[in-house]
Each structure stands twice: as structure tokens, then as C-alpha cells.
Predict the structure.
Amino acid sequence: VTALQIVTAAPPTPNGDLHLGHLAGPYSGADVYARGARLRGLSARYVTGSDVHQSYVPTKARVLGEEPLAMAQRFADEIAAVFATIGFACDSYVLPQHTPDHARLVQEFIAVLHRGGELEERTEPGLYCEACERYLFEAHVSGDCPRCGADSDGNSCENCAWPNLVVDLRHPRCNGCGATPVGRDFARLYFPLSRYADRLRAYYGQAVLSPQLEALCLDLLERGLPDIPVSHPTDWGIPVPVPGFEDQRIYVWAEMVPGYFASLAQALGGPDGAPGDWRAAWSDPGSQVVQFFGFDNGYFHVALFPALIMAYDPDLPLPHAMITNEFYLLDGTKFSTSRGHAVWAGDLLRHAEPDTVRFVLAHDRPEHRRTTFTWSRFTALADGELAGRWQDWLGALFARIADRHGGSVPGRDPVTASQRLFRDRLGRLAEDCLAAYGAQQFSPQTAARILCEIVRQGAEFAAGQERMRTLRPDSPEAAAAIALEAAAARALALLASPLMPQFAQRLWSALGCTGPLVWDGPVPVPPGTRTAPAPVFFAPCALQDGR
Ligand SMILES: [Zn+2]
Ligand SMILES: [Zn+2]
């Protein structure tokens, strides 16, 4: 297989446990997209990794008094365990410290840029803390963002997603000691991003972008793109393979592009661990790269990365789509690890089914605005919707098949006008749901609501056919009513598979269906198929404050 949906999620930084706010963003988005692509009959690979070279790793280790690499490994393992439990099925999760191919590809990437004249050696002002004797960038420095005024760390602002040059932060302070840093000249390798404005403008005209990114792209082009240092005088990261800069480290955000290549190589690799041919898959005319990341990483993905790819190899296709999300809040305010204001993914997954958590995260996903998690909201969706409406309809349907048809699905096409209407409505809902799994209209929120609507329509249809079943129990009309409900349940199993893979498989099996869950239309369950007697798909979790 070379034509692939290549789905990337910005790799998580291994400097803490995952809370629900983390899960609601790129990691779940990429997983739902990859599963949705497979539902649509496409091949997909979901690649991510561990962003170990972020400066936030050593700064956190300093706070915890741990050795940075050991701490990073511990958190990377915990993140991987949460991914496995909730079912974020990445095809590769690169740990740079254990994947030699990663550093090799990253250094080759920088070396190619330098050889091609795409990097410039420049001496320009930076910030330095005399007390800490440290060059300040990224996690090591904070100040007011020159673009939006919000409190920002070095090099990029979490609030407006704009890059900064550190020296343009207002009221800068060293995050190690709180002192005001001094200006000092540093020789670094620069990537002249400003030269790519015209090519990026052309690219934005054809890429699929979330609406927030459309605005960011226009704003970046209008105000002018800065040139970006891609080497830093620090000891954390991959050494720069350019003479004179060997004691500097490659900027972690320049590492991420070849990092995606390395992740893809690993995802395509053989069982012996040998990397696969990422370039062939990435370049295949039938492939599409779809990238997921939080809006706070916006500028890197929409501006720096495409320009780096153009500079590295102008023949490499650029990402087809870039899909972002906003922050997920807890009781209306930002999740905060330091203030203990968080619902930990591991805790919740000990008390609630993974598919239930996945459904809530999709239903209330912060797609175009911030959304908020509350326990009452969780209970309403988990117990009211899934263990309520969904279980009620499905439970009654399976009971009807068992009681009236001996456990075999009856074989009847729609007979009455109301039955034909329901079949057509189901087809339209399915089309809308499939579109919500595609890149152009990607919206797990929309998909979750359509699944609820299928359940509601199924229950309403069943209620409407009750008189037919009572008055004429042995009629073709009564049999067709149940056959149609079974077809709706079959469609629900297929269409729910990207959001709730375990539930989907259980419903699929309970309906007597076999084979992979690939969309083939709102077709009936084959007549005579034996169904399970009284399956329970969802039970109330009755959680109070997570217990
Ligand atoms: Zn800002
Ligand atoms: Zn300091």
C-alpha cells in the first residue's frame, strides 16, 4: 500500500500526565480521523511520538528534581498507557531517544537545508540570564506577547499562536530565577521564513484549514513572517550537524517535520524494526497528509513546517489539511496541573468505559470555540444519552427480534410510505456523518450528534410502527419495520466505529455481522441472521466528581 491517509498529531511533550484537556484535542482528533478514513475504505496511518526535546522537559525535571531523560521516559510510558486504554491507536509513537532513525533523519534534514543555502549564519540579539548563566528561549523565558499582550513564553504565544523573537517580549523574565534578563548577541542558524510568503499564500489557497487557521494565515502574511533561529545554544536536543554550530542544538520545532517523516517510516516499517519508505508514501499522488494540532501550535504547522518542507525538497507534497482545536476547559476555566485543577485521564478511565469517555470528548469537542467539561455534563451524556436513549432503543430492538422472530432478523424491504421515509432519512444522516469524518468538514462533534439523531430517529420509528406490530403482528409490514430498525442499528455500528470502536464492534457482532467495519451503505442485515439475545451495551456509570 502506498496511497495513504497520513495522519499526524503533534507529539505530546513528556513533562506531565495527560488530563482530559489533552485528550480532547489533536490525539483524539487524529484517531477519529484515521478510523473514519478506514470506515470510508481508505488506508490510514496515525503517526505521533514523544516530543522529548522540548525545553519544557528539562525545566520540569528541574522542578521535580529528577533526571530529565528518566522523567521523560516515565511520562512517555504513562502517556502511551493512556493512549492504549482509551484506544488512540497510533501506528507509531516515536521515542527519539530509542529510535536512531529519528536523530539521523533530523540531522540529515538540517544538513540538506544548510547545503542548499536555505539556512543563514547570523549573529543577532537574544536574551541571557546572568544569574542562571543561561541562554533564554522557549520554556526558559516569559513576558508579554508582542502581538496580543498576553503572558507568553519564548518563541511562541499560546494565546494568539504568533511567533516571537524573545527579545521582543515586553517585561521579560527568566523562568528559572525570575530575574530580568539582559540582551546579548548570539550566533545562530536562521531559517529565512520571510522569503516564503508568496509560496505560503499560494499554498493556503488550496489547503484545507480550520477557520481559526485561515485567520492566522492571513494575519501572518499581512504583518510579515519573521526569520526563525533553528539552532540554539543549549544542551537539550539533537546536535546541529553544521560546522561551527556543533555545540548548539536543533530547534525542537524544526525537528518536528523530519520527526513526522521518522514516525511514518516507523509506522511503515517491517516487524524487524527496519524503517519503511516514508518518502514513497508521502509522495504518492494518492496520499494525503492530514495534520492535527492545538491552536497554540498554529504558526509552527501553518507557516514554519510547510516552508521547511519546501526548502528541504520542493517536490514533496505539502499537507492536504490542517485541523486545529481550541482549549477544553474544566468548570469554565483552563485545566491547570500546577493548581491541581484537572481531571486526569488515567483516573477517569479507571471509572468509565473508554468508549464513553471518547463519546463525551467528541460530543463536546472544542472545535471552533472553547468548551467546558463538567461532571453533570458527563453524566448527562454517559448515563442520559448512552446508557439511557441508546441502550433503551437497542435493548428493545434486540428484544423484539428475539420475541417476535425467534432471534433471526426478518427479511423484508420497506412496505409502507413511513418505512420508505425512514430508510431515506437514514441514508441522508449516514452521508452527513461520513462527511463529518472527512478532512473538509471534519467534526467529531457533528458526528456524535448525528449518531444521537440516528438513535432518536430509530426509537421514534419503532414507536410509530408499534400499532402495526400490535394490530398485524404477522404481516409483511410488521416484519419490514423490524428489518429497518436492524438496518439502522447496523448503520449505527458502522458510523460509530471511529468514535466508539469497542461499542461498534460489540453491536456489529450482536447483530450477527462479520467482516471489517467498512461503510457499504445503509443496507439491511442479511435475512435470517442470528442476533444476540439481550446485549447490554452501556450501563450507567453514575459518577460523582469522578468517583
Ligand atoms: Zn500572543
Ligand atoms: Zn535566571
Q: What stands out?
A: The first strand starts at residue 5 and ends at 9. Residues 145, 147-148, 150, 152, 157, 159-160, 162 surround zinc ion (ligand 1) (CB under 6 Å).
